[in-house]
Amino acid sequence: MVARTPNRAWRIGVLEDDAQLREGIIIPGLRYFGFEVAGAASAAELYRHMLSQRFDMVVLDIGLPDEDGLTVVKHLREVSNLGIVMLTGNTGMDDHVSALTNGADAFLNKPVNIEVLAATLHSVARRLAAGPSAGHLATPFGGSGHWRLDTDDWCLVTPAGQALPLTAPERCILRILMAVRGEPVSRERLIGALTSDIYEFDPHRLEMMVHRLRRKAQDAAGQPLPLLTSRGQGYLFASDA
What is the mean predicted confidence (pLDDT) over 111-138? Predict the structure, then answer.
């Protein structure tokens, strides 16, 4: 695994033989949450990818056409410090225990929620950041007493240190609002950052995005996100002062 620098996204390999799930859901979904992603339909294809490119983490299914996923996990753990997240359609405990015993960092059942998968990968990234190369990796999340952005602004970190993965539009508006904490930002400016044609953009989409961010933060942190509506002006992210 190569050291991750602050200007590079986490690189993810996705090993899933279901092409529709891999190419239609998981890969575009993870890219939407800021990851660099490459897909493979078999263990052999993943190994070929690894000869020409480096991954920080892999997401892989247990049921594969050419090699058992548990065997892949064991092999990867023996030769690397990759983060490993397992997916399976089986609900039994045996696979879960075997995956974690063989070296997986996390285990999720299908159908997987992409936001949960993204959050899990960021959680695994914390382990990678705390490893021997921590100086070259993302800064581990920790409680700082205030809301902040981390991992190249792809995570909103709560005052208690919990990281919430952000979609590309969420990241876009939070970067603007948090750069000028305490000052209102107009809806027009935020919409202009989200689209090249502000007249075709439904303003209600921005309202729904703000509502979703507030709900996501409240559910995770148990306290309101200081993203406030500035009457007649737009929105502001309250200052910590």
Answer: 74
